[in-house]
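Before drawing any conclusions, I looked closely at one protein's amino acid sequence and its backbone structure tokens, quoted below without any editing.
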Amino acid sequence: MRKVCAVSLCILLLCVLVACGGASDSDTSTTASASTTSTRKTISTQASPLLTEGYCVADPSMFVRSEPNLFSEVLGGLAYGNKVDILSRKGDWFCIKFQDGTGYVSAQYIRAELPQE
């Protein structure tokens, strides 16, 4: 009985650590900083600065959603190269200005600059 309780406790602790644990790779990979030679603006939230504007690099396009998940309503889309104003970050999603309100896009498809071709 003690072994079952100990194993259950370990599993529970592991679940809590996974749910509340440290930053994921994507939380730390998208950072930018303002320098004296750059006009790029940044805002600081939590430990690292985030972009306040960026460009869609999804080819050919990506969805803008009502909530920061893949199952929420699709509000519209962004084409490659569309510029967005970023309001905040929620996990792997950026909240952006979209049409007359806001929407969410996957942060992995937003970059500070468009790639050079």
Summary: Helices lie at 2-20, 25-29. The longest strand covers residues 83-90. Residues 4 and 10 are 10 Å apart (CA to CA).
